[in-house]
Amino acid sequence: MKKVLLSMLFLGAATYANAQKSEVTKAKNAWTVAKFATNGKQPLDATLKTLEDGVKTTDNAIANEKSKDMPEAWSYRALFASRIAFVDTVNVQNAIANEKIAEDAITKGRALDTKGAEKENFTEAEQTLNNALRNRAIVAYNKKDFKSALEYFNEITAKNPQDTSTYVNAGVTAKQLENYPEMVKNFNKAIDLNYKDSESLYSEVVATTFAQLKDTVAGSALLEKAIAKYPEDKYFIGMQTDLYIKQGNVAKSQEMLTKLIAKDDKNAAYQYAMGDTYYKQALDLQVKRNKIDAKNKKEFETVTTKMTGFIDQALPYYKKAYELDPKMTAALENLKIIYAFKNDTVNYEATKKLLDAQKK
Protein backbone atom coordinates (compact mmCIF):
# COMPACT_ATOMS: atom_id res chain seq x y z
CA MET A 1 0.00 0.00 0.00
CA LYS A 2 2.85 2.36 0.84
CA LYS A 3 4.54 1.42 -2.38
CA VAL A 4 1.49 2.30 -4.38
CA LEU A 5 1.07 5.53 -2.47
CA LEU A 6 4.68 6.55 -3.04
CA SER A 7 4.41 5.69 -6.68
CA MET A 8 1.32 7.84 -6.98
CA LEU A 9 3.02 10.73 -5.17
CA PHE A 10 6.06 10.49 -7.41
CA LEU A 11 3.92 10.39 -10.51
CA GLY A 12 1.98 13.41 -9.27
CA ALA A 13 5.14 15.44 -8.65
CA ALA A 14 6.54 14.63 -12.06
CA THR A 15 3.29 15.51 -13.76
CA TYR A 16 3.15 18.78 -11.83
CA ALA A 17 6.68 19.74 -12.82
CA ASN A 18 6.06 18.86 -16.45
CA ALA A 19 2.89 20.92 -16.34
CA GLN A 20 4.89 23.95 -15.30
CA LYS A 21 7.52 23.32 -17.95
CA SER A 22 4.72 23.08 -20.47
CA GLU A 23 3.90 26.74 -19.72
CA VAL A 24 7.37 27.64 -20.94
CA THR A 25 6.90 25.37 -23.95
CA LYS A 26 3.64 27.18 -24.70
CA ALA A 27 5.51 30.47 -24.58
CA LYS A 28 8.14 29.17 -27.00
CA ASN A 29 5.51 27.87 -29.40
CA ALA A 30 3.55 31.11 -29.11
CA TRP A 31 6.68 33.10 -30.00
CA THR A 32 7.22 30.96 -33.10
CA VAL A 33 3.67 31.78 -34.18
CA ALA A 34 4.00 35.45 -33.22
CA LYS A 35 7.13 36.00 -35.31
CA PHE A 36 5.22 35.08 -38.44
CA ALA A 37 1.98 36.75 -37.35
CA THR A 38 3.63 40.11 -36.59
CA ASN A 39 5.34 40.66 -39.93
CA GLY A 40 3.38 43.84 -40.60
CA LYS A 41 0.87 42.20 -42.90
CA GLN A 42 -1.99 42.14 -40.41
CA PRO A 43 -3.80 45.00 -38.61
CA LEU A 44 -2.16 46.49 -35.53
CA ASP A 45 -4.91 45.32 -33.18
CA ALA A 46 -4.52 41.72 -34.36
CA THR A 47 -0.75 41.95 -33.99
CA LEU A 48 -1.04 43.30 -30.47
CA LYS A 49 -3.55 40.58 -29.54
CA THR A 50 -1.11 37.90 -30.66
CA LEU A 51 1.74 39.44 -28.68
CA GLU A 52 -0.34 40.11 -25.59
CA ASP A 53 -1.50 36.49 -25.59
CA GLY A 54 2.17 35.57 -25.70
CA VAL A 55 2.91 37.69 -22.63
CA LYS A 56 0.05 35.91 -20.83
CA THR A 57 1.66 32.53 -21.49
CA THR A 58 4.69 33.73 -19.58
CA ASP A 59 2.59 35.08 -16.71
CA ASN A 60 1.79 31.54 -15.59
CA ALA A 61 5.37 30.37 -15.98
CA ILE A 62 6.94 33.12 -13.87
CA ALA A 63 4.20 32.92 -11.27
CA ASN A 64 4.89 29.30 -10.38
CA GLU A 65 7.62 28.15 -8.01
CA LYS A 66 8.68 25.36 -10.37
CA SER A 67 9.29 27.48 -13.42
CA LYS A 68 9.83 31.02 -12.16
CA ASP A 69 13.59 30.45 -12.11
CA MET A 70 13.76 29.06 -15.65
CA PRO A 71 15.66 31.55 -17.88
CA GLU A 72 13.44 30.62 -20.82
CA ALA A 73 10.33 31.91 -19.05
CA TRP A 74 11.94 35.34 -18.77
CA SER A 75 13.60 35.43 -22.18
CA TYR A 76 10.33 34.80 -24.01
CA ARG A 77 8.55 37.27 -21.78
CA ALA A 78 11.17 39.84 -22.82
CA LEU A 79 10.71 38.96 -26.49
CA PHE A 80 6.93 39.38 -26.42
CA ALA A 81 6.89 42.56 -24.34
CA SER A 82 9.71 44.23 -26.29
CA ARG A 83 7.91 43.54 -29.56
CA ILE A 84 4.75 45.18 -28.20
CA ALA A 85 6.83 48.20 -27.17
CA PHE A 86 8.08 48.39 -30.74
CA VAL A 87 4.89 47.89 -32.74
CA ASP A 88 2.42 49.87 -30.60
CA THR A 89 2.94 53.37 -31.97
CA VAL A 90 -0.66 54.36 -31.18
CA ASN A 91 -0.86 53.78 -27.43
CA VAL A 92 2.41 55.20 -26.12
CA GLN A 93 1.58 54.37 -22.51
CA ASN A 94 1.01 50.72 -23.41
CA ALA A 95 4.32 50.68 -25.29
CA ILE A 96 6.16 52.17 -22.30
CA ALA A 97 4.47 49.74 -19.88
CA ASN A 98 5.60 46.78 -21.97
CA GLU A 99 9.05 48.29 -22.29
CA LYS A 100 9.26 48.14 -18.49
CA ILE A 101 8.04 44.53 -18.48
CA ALA A 102 10.71 43.62 -21.02
CA GLU A 103 13.48 45.44 -19.16
CA ASP A 104 12.59 43.68 -15.91
CA ALA A 105 12.46 40.34 -17.70
CA ILE A 106 15.89 40.89 -19.25
CA THR A 107 17.42 41.83 -15.90
CA LYS A 108 15.83 38.90 -14.07
CA GLY A 109 16.46 36.39 -16.84
CA ARG A 110 20.11 37.26 -17.39
CA ALA A 111 20.76 36.81 -13.67
CA LEU A 112 19.26 33.32 -13.89
CA ASP A 113 20.87 32.39 -17.21
CA THR A 114 24.26 31.42 -15.78
CA LYS A 115 25.03 29.15 -18.74
CA GLY A 116 24.10 31.70 -21.37
CA ALA A 117 21.56 29.46 -23.05
CA GLU A 118 19.15 32.35 -23.61
CA LYS A 119 21.76 34.95 -24.48
CA GLU A 120 20.56 35.42 -28.05
CA ASN A 121 16.94 35.95 -26.99
CA PHE A 122 17.89 38.54 -24.40
CA THR A 123 20.10 40.33 -26.93
CA GLU A 124 17.26 40.33 -29.48
CA ALA A 125 14.81 41.71 -26.92
CA GLU A 126 17.26 44.41 -25.91
CA GLN A 127 17.79 45.44 -29.53
CA THR A 128 14.04 45.53 -30.09
CA LEU A 129 13.69 47.85 -27.10
CA ASN A 130 16.35 50.13 -28.55
CA ASN A 131 14.50 50.20 -31.86
CA ALA A 132 11.22 50.81 -30.06
CA LEU A 133 12.63 53.85 -28.29
CA ARG A 134 14.12 55.22 -31.52
CA ASN A 135 10.84 54.67 -33.29
CA ARG A 136 8.95 56.43 -30.49
CA ALA A 137 11.33 59.40 -30.66
CA ILE A 138 11.01 59.73 -34.43
CA VAL A 139 7.21 59.42 -34.33
CA ALA A 140 7.07 62.14 -31.67
CA TYR A 141 9.38 64.37 -33.73
CA ASN A 142 7.30 63.90 -36.88
CA LYS A 143 4.20 64.85 -34.87
CA LYS A 144 6.10 67.97 -33.77
CA ASP A 145 5.96 66.81 -30.18
CA PHE A 146 9.53 67.97 -29.75
CA LYS A 147 9.47 67.89 -25.97
CA SER A 148 8.67 64.17 -25.88
CA ALA A 149 11.05 63.47 -28.77
CA LEU A 150 13.93 65.11 -26.89
CA GLU A 151 13.17 63.06 -23.77
CA TYR A 152 13.23 59.85 -25.82
CA PHE A 153 16.43 60.77 -27.67
CA ASN A 154 18.12 61.62 -24.37
CA GLU A 155 16.96 58.30 -22.97
CA ILE A 156 18.59 56.53 -25.91
CA THR A 157 21.93 58.31 -25.41
CA ALA A 158 21.83 57.51 -21.70
CA LYS A 159 21.53 53.82 -22.57
CA ASN A 160 23.90 53.99 -25.55
CA PRO A 161 26.48 56.69 -24.75
CA GLN A 162 28.49 56.01 -27.92
CA ASP A 163 25.54 56.55 -30.28
CA THR A 164 26.63 59.64 -32.22
CA SER A 165 23.62 59.82 -34.55
CA THR A 166 21.21 60.02 -31.61
CA TYR A 167 23.19 62.87 -30.04
CA VAL A 168 22.74 64.68 -33.33
CA ASN A 169 19.00 63.91 -33.36
CA ALA A 170 18.73 65.18 -29.79
CA GLY A 171 20.56 68.36 -30.77
CA VAL A 172 18.32 68.96 -33.79
CA THR A 173 15.24 68.43 -31.61
CA ALA A 174 16.55 70.77 -28.90
CA LYS A 175 17.08 73.42 -31.57
CA GLN A 176 13.41 73.11 -32.54
CA LEU A 177 12.56 73.86 -28.91
CA GLU A 178 15.05 76.75 -28.90
CA ASN A 179 16.75 74.95 -26.04
CA TYR A 180 20.18 76.08 -27.18
CA PRO A 181 22.24 74.84 -24.20
CA GLU A 182 20.81 71.35 -24.77
CA MET A 183 21.50 71.61 -28.49
CA VAL A 184 25.11 72.64 -27.92
CA LYS A 185 25.63 69.91 -25.33
CA ASN A 186 24.42 67.15 -27.65
CA PHE A 187 26.24 68.42 -30.74
CA ASN A 188 29.47 68.76 -28.74
CA LYS A 189 29.09 65.17 -27.55
CA ALA A 190 28.69 63.96 -31.12
CA ILE A 191 31.79 65.96 -32.11
CA ASP A 192 33.78 64.43 -29.25
CA LEU A 193 32.77 60.98 -30.52
CA ASN A 194 34.06 61.88 -34.03
CA TYR A 195 30.70 62.14 -35.76
CA LYS A 196 31.22 61.86 -39.53
CA ASP A 197 29.99 65.40 -40.27
CA SER A 198 31.50 67.18 -37.28
CA GLU A 199 32.37 70.16 -39.50
CA SER A 200 28.67 71.02 -39.87
CA LEU A 201 28.06 70.49 -36.16
CA TYR A 202 30.92 72.85 -35.31
CA SER A 203 29.31 75.49 -37.54
CA GLU A 204 26.01 75.16 -35.66
CA VAL A 205 27.62 75.09 -32.23
CA VAL A 206 29.94 78.03 -32.81
CA ALA A 207 27.26 80.23 -34.36
CA THR A 208 24.74 79.38 -31.63
CA THR A 209 27.21 79.97 -28.81
CA PHE A 210 27.94 83.45 -30.11
CA ALA A 211 24.46 84.46 -31.32
CA GLN A 212 21.99 82.80 -28.97
CA LEU A 213 24.01 82.03 -25.85
CA LYS A 214 25.98 85.28 -26.10
CA ASP A 215 29.03 83.50 -24.71
CA THR A 216 32.05 85.01 -26.45
CA VAL A 217 34.58 83.13 -24.33
CA ALA A 218 33.09 79.69 -25.01
CA GLY A 219 32.43 80.62 -28.64
CA SER A 220 36.04 81.68 -29.19
CA ALA A 221 37.31 78.46 -27.64
CA LEU A 222 35.04 76.38 -29.87
CA LEU A 223 36.07 78.40 -32.91
CA GLU A 224 39.73 77.72 -32.23
CA LYS A 225 39.02 73.99 -31.91
CA ALA A 226 37.06 74.07 -35.17
CA ILE A 227 39.86 75.84 -37.05
CA ALA A 228 42.44 73.45 -35.64
CA LYS A 229 40.44 70.52 -36.99
CA TYR A 230 39.29 72.16 -40.24
CA PRO A 231 41.96 74.74 -41.09
CA GLU A 232 40.67 75.27 -44.64
CA ASP A 233 37.04 75.92 -43.75
CA LYS A 234 36.31 79.43 -45.02
CA TYR A 235 33.32 79.83 -42.69
CA PHE A 236 35.46 79.34 -39.59
CA ILE A 237 38.28 81.49 -40.93
CA GLY A 238 35.82 84.24 -41.86
CA MET A 239 34.18 84.07 -38.45
CA GLN A 240 37.48 84.35 -36.65
CA THR A 241 38.43 87.25 -38.91
CA ASP A 242 35.15 88.97 -37.97
CA LEU A 243 35.77 88.27 -34.31
CA TYR A 244 39.24 89.80 -34.35
CA ILE A 245 37.96 92.83 -36.23
CA LYS A 246 35.08 93.33 -33.76
CA GLN A 247 37.60 93.10 -30.96
CA GLY A 248 39.61 95.79 -32.69
CA ASN A 249 42.43 93.33 -33.24
CA VAL A 250 42.81 93.43 -37.02
CA ALA A 251 46.55 92.91 -36.66
CA LYS A 252 45.94 89.57 -34.96
CA SER A 253 43.67 88.45 -37.77
CA GLN A 254 46.14 89.52 -40.45
CA GLU A 255 48.98 87.86 -38.58
CA MET A 256 47.08 84.58 -38.55
CA LEU A 257 46.13 84.84 -42.23
CA THR A 258 49.63 85.84 -43.30
CA LYS A 259 50.97 82.62 -41.78
CA LEU A 260 48.26 80.58 -43.44
CA ILE A 261 48.88 82.17 -46.85
CA ALA A 262 52.62 81.63 -46.49
CA LYS A 263 51.88 77.96 -45.87
CA ASP A 264 49.36 77.67 -48.71
CA ASP A 265 49.00 80.63 -51.05
CA LYS A 266 46.71 78.61 -53.33
CA ASN A 267 43.96 78.51 -50.74
CA ALA A 268 41.08 80.75 -51.89
CA ALA A 269 39.53 80.92 -48.41
CA TYR A 270 42.70 82.41 -46.94
CA GLN A 271 42.92 85.02 -49.72
CA TYR A 272 39.27 85.95 -49.33
CA ALA A 273 39.56 86.28 -45.55
CA MET A 274 42.59 88.54 -45.89
CA GLY A 275 40.63 90.72 -48.28
CA ASP A 276 37.89 90.91 -45.67
CA THR A 277 40.27 92.29 -43.05
CA TYR A 278 40.67 95.39 -45.21
CA TYR A 279 37.21 95.54 -46.74
CA LYS A 280 35.39 95.42 -43.39
CA GLN A 281 37.51 98.28 -42.10
CA ALA A 282 36.42 100.21 -45.18
CA LEU A 283 32.77 99.41 -44.40
CA ASP A 284 33.20 100.69 -40.85
CA LEU A 285 34.62 103.93 -42.22
CA GLN A 286 31.71 104.18 -44.63
CA VAL A 287 29.30 104.12 -41.69
CA LYS A 288 31.38 106.86 -40.05
CA ARG A 289 31.48 108.89 -43.25
CA ASN A 290 27.68 108.73 -43.62
CA LYS A 291 27.35 110.50 -40.28
CA ILE A 292 29.61 113.41 -41.24
CA ASP A 293 27.94 116.75 -41.80
CA ALA A 294 27.90 117.58 -45.52
CA LYS A 295 29.49 120.96 -44.71
CA ASN A 296 32.54 119.29 -43.19
CA LYS A 297 34.21 118.47 -46.52
CA LYS A 298 37.70 118.12 -45.08
CA GLU A 299 36.73 115.38 -42.63
CA PHE A 300 34.63 113.72 -45.33
CA GLU A 301 37.59 113.62 -47.73
CA THR A 302 39.97 112.38 -45.04
CA VAL A 303 37.70 109.45 -44.20
CA THR A 304 37.10 108.75 -47.88
CA THR A 305 40.85 108.57 -48.50
CA LYS A 306 41.32 106.07 -45.68
CA MET A 307 38.34 104.08 -46.90
CA THR A 308 39.69 103.98 -50.44
CA GLY A 309 43.05 102.83 -49.13
CA PHE A 310 41.49 99.84 -47.38
CA ILE A 311 39.43 99.01 -50.49
CA ASP A 312 42.55 99.10 -52.66
CA GLN A 313 44.26 96.72 -50.24
CA ALA A 314 41.30 94.33 -50.27
CA LEU A 315 41.02 94.27 -54.07
CA PRO A 316 43.99 92.02 -54.98
CA TYR A 317 43.04 89.43 -52.36
CA TYR A 318 39.48 89.15 -53.65
CA LYS A 319 40.78 88.89 -57.22
CA LYS A 320 43.18 86.17 -56.17
CA ALA A 321 40.44 84.31 -54.30
CA TYR A 322 38.23 84.29 -57.40
CA GLU A 323 41.16 83.29 -59.59
CA LEU A 324 41.79 80.29 -57.34
CA ASP A 325 38.10 79.43 -56.97
CA PRO A 326 35.91 80.64 -59.87
CA LYS A 327 32.83 79.40 -57.98
CA MET A 328 33.41 81.78 -55.07
CA THR A 329 30.39 84.04 -55.55
CA ALA A 330 31.16 86.05 -52.41
CA ALA A 331 34.46 87.23 -53.91
CA LEU A 332 32.70 88.37 -57.10
CA GLU A 333 29.99 90.16 -55.11
CA ASN A 334 32.58 92.19 -53.21
CA LEU A 335 34.56 92.89 -56.36
CA LYS A 336 31.43 94.25 -58.04
CA ILE A 337 30.79 96.60 -55.10
CA ILE A 338 34.43 97.75 -55.10
CA TYR A 339 34.41 98.46 -58.86
CA ALA A 340 31.17 100.39 -58.45
CA PHE A 341 32.74 102.48 -55.67
CA LYS A 342 35.80 103.17 -57.81
CA ASN A 343 33.64 104.01 -60.87
CA ASP A 344 35.45 101.28 -62.79
CA THR A 345 32.67 100.63 -65.32
CA VAL A 346 34.58 98.11 -67.44
CA ASN A 347 35.46 95.79 -64.54
CA TYR A 348 32.06 96.35 -62.94
CA GLU A 349 30.23 95.16 -66.05
CA ALA A 350 32.59 92.21 -66.53
CA THR A 351 32.13 91.14 -62.92
CA LYS A 352 28.36 91.56 -63.10
CA LYS A 353 28.30 89.36 -66.18
CA LEU A 354 30.21 86.63 -64.34
CA LEU A 355 27.81 86.83 -61.42
CA ASP A 356 24.75 86.66 -63.62
CA ALA A 357 26.17 83.58 -65.34
CA GLN A 358 26.71 81.85 -62.01
CA LYS A 359 23.15 82.54 -60.90
CA LYS A 360 21.62 80.91 -63.99
Describe the structure.
The protein has 360 residues and is mainly alpha-helical. Helix 6 packs antiparallel against helix 7, helix 10 packs antiparallel against helix 11 and helix 11 runs antiparallel to helix 12. It is elongated.
Q: SSE layout and pairings?
A:
Layout: H1 2-37, H2 44-63, H3 71-87, H4 92-112, H5 119-142, H6 146-159, H7 164-176, H8 180-192, H9 198-211, H10 216-229, H11 234-246, H12 250-263, H13 268-290, H14 297-324, H15 329-341, H16 345-359
Helix pairs in contact: 1-2, 1-3, 2-3, 3-4, 3-5, 4-5, 5-6, 6-7, 7-8, 8-9, 9-10, 10-11, 11-12, 11-13, 12-13, 13-14, 14-15, 15-16
Instruction: Classify the secondary structure makeup into a structural class.
Output: mainly alpha
Overall spatial form: elongated
CATH topology-level fold name of the largest domain? Serine Threonine Protein Phosphatase 5, Tetratricopeptide repeat
Main sheet makeup: none
CATH class of the largest domain: Mainly Alpha
Radius of gyration: 34 Å
Quote the average pLDDT. Answer: 89
N-end to C-end Cα span: 105 Å
Low-confidence stretches: 1-20
Query: What is the tally of helical segments?
Result: 16
One letter per element, helices H and strands E, the order comes to HHHHHHHHHHHHHHHH
Helix content: over 70%
Strand content: under 5%
Annotation, overall tally of beta strands: 0
Integer count of domains: 3
CATH architecture level-2 label of the largest domain: Alpha Horseshoe
